[in-house]
């Protein structure tokens, strides 16, 4: 089942995805990619006659993050006058989700409060086991070395462990709640669900509060210990520690000096919030022990409409870590490149995608013709970007540690580009097989990055050889793929130049710098690329235009993407930065900046109500679509905001 979240929660040990009405969609432990232990988990009320589920359409929902934290606040208002407020956060150190419910009503309400879960512990629903140890206040479910436990404050008064099957409906915990009484079955095995409950008597002056704790462990004793710890700790203390942890982590970020732009007076605070939210989201999506990033929390486990998103791609992560580097978090580069050393293939390349622990993930890129060569180029380019920021002696130590990786990767790129264009492979969108402008640009940048490190490693011969090949790739790409219409072809497919325009051709400028805005002729090429992308790929929605991937895109209705739109705004800002602040160029500077701001504003309009940046925006409704949040989108939002800040500082220095 495909379920896209509105918000995410987590710490170093747990990732949770949440729907806009507080439903749990995903509960990932011990990794961000595996295992996902929840099929359904939410609250409901029994009014003496019927069940009122928290995700019922009668509730009007408002969900947001507590500012500068990964704490989610959800308020549900029912047409009957009931109000359910949910505060969700993950414990600051333990893999435990804390769910605090406050329920009030404009008139007297007597009934029950139930918390229901259909767990598939270890992503297995057929052979789970469950038990309720009432004396310890713990309901547990397990399979092999995966344990998920539920406890509460105050302690639940009744419970049921049942079969999540219509054929044994009389034990089913979901059905068992319908009469307002739970059967208190202590244990069962198989396809299971469970519920816990309390009496509920409230009115306008007498709200009720319940806190549900959902924790995970790899062994039963550890689960007991973990849940005892949260039972003995106040929710207020856990909340405060979680809040302080987020604020402290954000205090390391680069300080921004973004001005109030004319026509965007109220937008400045939105940019600050988006910067913090993107940072906080990326902190959750990173495996801090391995250094890898999940592209997005998985929502299409059956590969119904996609190949899945809960994996690490080198291409995405290379842009993510360099964005975090610029934002003030260089440690993510160090960890990710260590992961890259361990995951590099024997031929010097990297696989299509990986599990976060470094094992190769399900793939349709198992052969040389179906690999994605841009991922290798992107990785070396990112390594060199980080390398250039280091100071001695750390710089030399880092180079020693990655030199074999860089050498092997660069030689792989050399073998695949003997004719000046790369050999056939799969494009970055994993759609077409052929030779691509974007891939050549990534290889160009990777070889130049490798050459820079080779010079410092006293390998001038290698450096000269790699630079020569990079320049050959650039000249051949321009010669064979630049069109009279003023943009690069997508590439060469089936031996013919494919003139369909693809947003990824902006990669020749950002991020790979094959074209330079400082060179007058190349600047004209960049301007022409931008104009053609805008002319052919923009999609009207949300009071402006988003940019779709390519003209014939049919994936998920051909929606515009946040990544492609923010690539374009990034290119506009990079163009603005190289402009001299002369009177005759001030109008061009203003135009470039304003156009970029419109695209950034459009991207933020496509976020969820809680501020999560998606992969796409629905071209009909303007709502967030498909993968939510997408790490790549978050990284590019950081890039754009940092460029706005860089532009402001440049202009401020010139005015002094």
Q: Give the overall shape.
A: globular
* Terminus-to-terminus distance: 58 Å
The class by helix and strand makeup works out as alpha+beta
Beta percentage is 15-25%
Low-confidence segments: none
In terms of quaternary structure, the protein is single chain
Average pLDDT confidence is: 96
Main beta sheet strand tally, sense and closure: 9 strands, antiparallel
Question: Helicity, in percent?
Answer: 25-40%
> Can you list the strand order of the major beta sheet?
6-7-8-9-17-13-12-11-15
Q: Give the strand tally.
A: 25
Helices, by number, come to 14
Radius of gyration: 27 Å
Topology:
Elements (H helix, E strand, L loop, with lengths): L6 E5 L2 E5 L5 E5 L9 E9 L4 E3 L5 E7 L6 E7 L3 E9 L5 E10 L3 E11 L8 E6 L4 E6 L2 E8 L4 E6 L9 H4 L10 E4 L1 E11 L5 E10 L2 H12 L3 H16 L17 H18 L28 H14 L3 H13 L29 H15 L6 H22 L9 E2 L6 E4 H20 L3 H22 L9 E3 L2 E3 L21 H18 E4 L2 E4 L14 H16 L8 H20 L10 E2 L6 E2 L5 H25 L1
Question: What does this entry look like structurally?
Answer:
- This protein is an alpha+beta fold and 656 residues long.
- It has 14 helices and 25 strands.
- Helix 6 packs across helix 7.
Question: Any key phrases for this structure?
Answer:
single chain; 656 residues; nine-stranded antiparallel beta sheet; 25 strands; 36% helix
Concise overview:
With 656 residues, the chain is an alpha+beta fold.
